Amino acid sequence: MVRTPCCDKDGLKKGSWTQEEDNKLIAYVTRYGHWNWRLLPKFAGLARCGKSCRLRWLNYLRPDVKRGNFSDEEEETIVRLHEKLGNRWSVIATHLPGRTDNDLKNHWHTTLKKRLGKNVHTERHVKAAKSNSSGANPDKDSIYNNGFFLEGSHSPTVSKTSDPDPDPLSPELSSSEFSSSDYTTHQNLFAEDGFDFLDACLEDVNQNIWTESFHISQVTTQANGIDNFHGSDAAKAMECVRAESPLSYHNENLVVENDDFGFLGAIEPITENSWTEAFVADMSLIPNELLVPLVNESESYFSSTYDSEDLWCLNDNSHDLDVNLFQ
DNA sequence: AACCGTCACAACCGCATGCGA
DNA sequence: CTCGCATGCGGTTGTGACGGT
């Protein structure tokens, strides 16, 4: 089967996102949701492929994305979960609110893996010293307990004692190298350690799934005093879109996808706005077919007789429309 | 000041997966 | 059941900042 490209290769920008592009994407997604990533850039006025837009939104622009250094607790969680789950970063990320799989992946490769490598190296020397002095097998549960691992947890590297002198930074540290027996062993070890918070966390994740449309008026608004906009603070952008867009007062209710918009409930009151210019989504790019009223189907979105009480959303059937219609 | 190496982070790429026609 | 599509995921690469020489 030949896959169609995710986007047209010609004329689409790649590389770092500009502030203007961020603004456009934030404005569009906060108002209309990401109903279709592939078509979204056309409507948002972005010369990017949908895939790029999705990545930018999920990894950087979402209001709930936590930035800054990882706390000790977060790092410990990452290490524990990686020990148990391997490189399933998206799963691990669900247990670290505000952190994306990309964040975790980057932090693992740039910091944690190396740190663990050093620790393993140190522990191996300790182990060797103990072995030399006593001649007995050292306490297995004490190995690798360096602040990251609990008693009883085992690193894959330590388990591979057959290697005479492995490089602590070698790919051996990757859990993807685990044998199935290694994985089973580690699962059992965690179970023995009472490593049961995973199930508890799943409940929280499920509770964050949106089932109803988001009512933007729940967000505290304070759009005055805007000086400088930073893409990382998309929550501020939401305020600005609402306050500055001439259409925003129409759009009291946004219908968003039933996926990962739980973050919208976590938006905090804005105390420091930094938006230089209001971005107005180019509604002329959105065909009326895509905009249907939830209450009164006889009026178009731009109707002068528009009733502010009506609810509007993007047409659920938009996926079926010919893509050429929008080109 | 210029160069170079390292690091952290952002972004891209290709494949996997789920779903509807 | 197969196909085509959209989206998700993980590996990899690109890039800018920073510090050392």
UniProtKB/TrEMBL annotation:
Residue ranges of every copy of the HTH myb-type domain listed in the record? 9-61, 62-116
SMART domains per record: SANT (SM00717)
What are the subcellular locations of this protein?
A: Nucleus
The ranges of region (Disordered) come to 119-139, 154-180
Gene3D superfamilies referenced in this protein's UniProt entry, alphabetically: Homeodomain-like
The Myb-like domain sits at: 9-61, 62-112
Q: Which PROSITE patterns match?
A: HTH_MYB, MYB_LIKE
Ranges of biased composition (kind: Low complexity): 170-180
* Annotated Gene Ontology cellular component terms: nucleus
Which keywords, in A-to-Z order, does the entry hold? DNA-binding, Nucleus, Repeat
Q: What is this protein called?
A: Myb proto-oncogene protein
The organism of origin for this protein = Vigna unguiculata
